[in-house]
Design brief:
Blueprint (H helix, E strand, L loop, with lengths): L7 H14 L4 H8 L3 H9 L5 E2 L4 E2 L1
Antiparallel strand pairs: 1-2
Amino acid sequence: MNSIPKDPVILLSYVNTQLRDNYHSLDEMCQALGVEPSTIISALAGIGYTYEPAGNCFH
């Protein structure tokens, strides 16, 4: 598993940048990074963000 940021605010920036620049979906990114989507979804839900598939980002 690749290391992803533990701080949720930094994770938000990291994930949205990765999704914008390198991946077409959250599932694709998670597979490439070896991370469960639920790990990211839960961490970002804790600071009020949800994944928007149409925009391929967390809002």
